[in-house]
Design a protein that fits this description.
- By secondary structure, the protein is an alpha/beta fold.
- Helix content is about 35%, strand content about 25%.
- The structure holds glycinamide ribonucleotide.
- Glycinamide ribonucleotide binds next to helix 1, strand 7 and helix 6.
Length: about 190
């Protein structure tokens, strides 16, 4: 199963995937490569570190969605990589129908809340401000409904009275770093 990771940020989840691959914990997943819509994103530095292709792809002309010329660029690059699974790991753009239809059933997303609670931006902050006692993270299939596709797996994280936003955030990220590689490994064995 060939895997493409799309990310916009520091890439800690892409790093977790690549560390799992190195440790032989990524099932039959292989040929991992990274594309980013941010030329300076930390995720691109993982390429040389892990010896995998990591490429900036210009998402223009839109700022918050992948559409038009940018969408075509991504579709062509992902097709050329013969990806079986597209992993959105902090890819902060709305995916539109042409992309979804091209890779139907092959796109998964990581979200830092127990969906359907707290979709959208700053999910960790939303959960913290709402005062929930159990939060977590979700991996789900991507559909046209933002953060709304079928849930594949989730990990719960308890918020203790001693937690601060910082310690809670760190717990959610640690849960993500375990959950996402485990889901990819499982999908690769099907
Ligand atoms: C992760 O916490 C992921 O759940 C979140 O972005 C972060 C990326 O971190 N994604 C979303 O909020 C998507 N709605 P990373 O760049 O260190 O992997």
């Amino acid at each position: 199963m060939r895997v493409v990771i799309l990310g916009s940020g520091r890439g800690s989840n892409a790093e977790a995937i690549l560390l799992a691959k190195q440790a032989g914990r990524l099932g039959r997943a292989e040929g991992v490569r990274i594309f980013s819509d941010q030329p300076d994103a930390g995720i691109l530095a993982l390429g040389p570190r892990f010896g995998v292709p990591a490429t900036y792809l210009d998402p223009a002309p839109y700022k918050t969605k992948l559409d038009g010329e940018g969408e075509t660029l991504y579709i062509d690059a992902i097709k050329a990589s013969r990806a079986d699974l597209i992993v959105l790991a902090g890819f902060m753009r709305v995916i539109k129908p042409r992309f979804l239809d091209t890779f139907a059933g092959k796109i998964i997303n990581l979200h830092p809340s127990l969906l359907p609670s707290f979709p959208g931006l700053d999910a960790i902050g939303q959960a913290w401000r709402r005062g929930v006692k159990v939060a977590g993270c979700t991996v789900h299939y991507v559909t046209a409904e933002v953060d709304g596709g079928p849930i594949i797996d989730q990990t719960a994280v308890r918020i203790e009275p001693t937690d601060t936003l910082e310690t809670f955030t760190a717990k959610v990220h640690a849960a993500e770093h375990a959950l996402l590689p485990a889901v990819i490994a499982r999908l690769s064995e099907r």
